[in-house]
Amino acid sequence: MRNNITKIGWEKFIAFIFSILGFSGCNDEFEQTCLYGSPNVDYTVKISVTDEDNAPISDIQATFYQSRYVDYSKDTLYSNKNGEINGIIEYYSTEGGLKIKLEDVDGEENGEFETREIIFNNPRTNKIKDDSDDWNQGMFLLEETIKMEKK
For residue 8, what is the enclosing H or E element? Predict the structure, then answer.
């Protein structure tokens, strides 16, 4: 009986030491490697920005937020003369969705437009590259046409 108590005591002591050193117990039950940090997701952005008459709008600033609830992990792209916002953005988890804030930043030069916010509740629907592993969850396409209203 005393031998079992001593064994349990040593097991708790060793588990405590391992937890201080940053080790965790992993097994094949989950078929997943234990990693520290957060997996990332890549997005290829192809957004077309137009006015109400379908004319392209340049110099629209698109700010991407990692979550629809909290404004953190920002990434910014701008529309070109054809009204296209193209680029690649990388985020960690987008379980809370992805929010895009569109703002007219050039003043009266191309007309003045109201600020818009678009929320993608499930941005991981269109997978275009599957190089996913335990860390990278692949590349997805964000493709949208957004109409801006004049002020």
Answer: helix 2-21
Question: What is the β-pairing status of strands 40-50 and 84-91?
Answer: antiparallel
All structural domains of the chain with their residue ranges: 40-147
The class of domain 40-147 in CATH terms is mainly beta
CA distance 139 to 137: 7
Tens digits of per-residue pLDDT, 3-60?
556 666 777 887 777 777 765 555 555 455 565 666 777 888 999 999 999 999 999 9
In order of 11, 15, 53, 62, 136, the CA distances from 50 in angstroms are: 65, 59, 7, 13, 33
Dihedral-angle region of residue 38 (phi above 0 means left; psi in -120 to 50 means alpha; beta otherwise) = beta
Q: Helix, strand, or coil here: 3?
A: helix
pLDDT tens column, 99-108: 889 999 988 8
Name the percent of the chain in helix, strand, coil, to the closest 5.
15, 40, 45
The DSSP annotation for 46-73 comes to EEEEE-TTS-B--SEEEEEES-SSS--S
Region of 50 please: left (phi>0), alpha (psi -120 to 50) or beta: beta
